[in-house]
Specification:
The protein has 358 residues and is mainly beta. 11% of the residues lie in helices and 56% in strands. The longest helix is centred in the first third of the chain and has 24 residues.
């Protein structure tokens, strides 16, 4: 009887464990975590090695990497260092609260209230100066053009200039706040999103125009705020809001995916990468989820680095290759930013830059 009782107890325990396993794997999130665990344990991880540290006397406000050099914006000046840590040049701007934008083609220093914009090359030489005589909220590059978010009187708008400062197109919007903007790759069309706060609800509007200023289309998103806008084709926009992701073509929503508070988005020729919660998801241009990768820690930004996708948070860096974790780095100090530095990663802290090899 005792042997039979033990056998029954063992069978009951087996059934309880089996039910627990079934319930655990009935959750898609737990399935993803288990698959990630199996993939990661079968992959050999690499370590990151700090090969050089460059101390900073002032706090770093912004930073960029150009052709084996690091350009830092701090205390109203640009400073260029080579990757050995030696200072190559320094340029100070005696402007009222200047701001900086690092683009692919150049560097733009601007004085918001006066509308003075300085375009520089990576040697620190001023290529041109624009005097818009209106408030400038932001400056970005767009396919070798310059897009400026401006405010004139009580209206916001977009100015598009060529690299010589010649006005190509401008558009003011009455009453609404401009959120984000972009130009397509063929420089034939531009789009911008605005926010209307009138009434008891909010509404985002996405407008598209050709480069002659002719209105082409508009799309409304009620109770959503647009944070990101980019063309993946001449006529197709990817739109990221506080509630999800959309693909829009000539006012028509081709597909949408609901995601709360996407923290970062990166688009390349292979698809769309979004980072939300503790998950990185790759989505095809047709809106199909190709893969998801979940992490134990929270991350806030992703950047491409050679064959890797680098994801970093306040104190952690993870590298993915073919969807699998192949490197991990933990820092005791708070990480401000991570840059693709050619053959090395550049980790930015408040008062220091580390150059790291893989």
């Amino acid at each position: 009887m005792k042997a039979e009782q033990k056998s029954n107890n063992g069978f009951k325990l087996f059934v309880i464990v089996l039910i627990g396993v079934i319930l655990f794997f009935s959750s898609s999130k737990n399935q993803e975590k288990f698959i990630n665990f199996i993939n990661n344990t079968s992959m050999v991880r690499k370590d990151l090695e700090v090969i050089r540290s460059i101390p900073m006397k002032e706090s770093i406000d912004d930073i960029a990497y150009y052709d084996n050099s690091i350009i830092v914006w701090m205390d109203n000046k640009l400073v260029r260092y080579n990757t050995q840590g030696s200072k190559e040049w320094e340029k100070e701007f005696n402007l009222n609260s200047p701001e900086v934008t690092f683009g692919d083609e150049g560097i733009y220093v601007y004085e918001a209230l006066t509308g003075n914009v300085y375009s520089l090359n990576t040697k620190g030489e001023t290529i041109s100066k624009f005097q818009l005589q209106t408030e400038v909220r932001n400056v970005i590059e767009g396919n070798k053009n310059i897009l400026l978010h401006v405010k004139k009187d009580d209206n916001e708008g977009i100015n598009i200039l060529d690299t010589n400062g010649k006005m190509i197109q401008n558009k003011l919007v009455e009453g609404d706040n401009v959120l984000t903007y972009c130009i397509n790759r063929s420089n034939s069309k531009y789009a911008f999103a605005t926010l209307n706060l009138k009434g008891n609800s909010i509404r985002s509007e996405i407008q598209a125009y050709n480069m002659e200023g002719e209105f082409l289309s508009t799309t409304y998103l009620d109770n959503e705020i647009v944070f990101y806008l980019n063309f993946i084709k001449d006529d197709t926009l990817i739109v990221m809001t506080d509630k999800g992701l959309y693909s829009i073509d000539d006012s028509s929503i081709l597909w949408q995916k609901d995601h709360q508070l996407i923290k970062d988005i990166y688009i390349n020729e292979k698809g769309i990468n979004i980072l939300y919660g503790n998950t990185l998801e790759n989505i095809s241009f047709d809106g199909i989820s190709e893969y998801k990768h979940s992490f134990l820690e929270e991350y806030r930004k992703s950047i491409p680095f050679n064959e890797y996708m680098i994801i970093y948070g306040p104190n952690n860096i993870i590298g993915l290759k073919e969807g699998k974790e192949v490197l991990k780095y933990e820092s005791e100090e708070s990480i401000l930013k991570v840059l693709n530095g050619g053959q090395n990663l550049i980790i930015v802290y408040e008062n220091r830059i580390d150059i790291v090899s893989i």
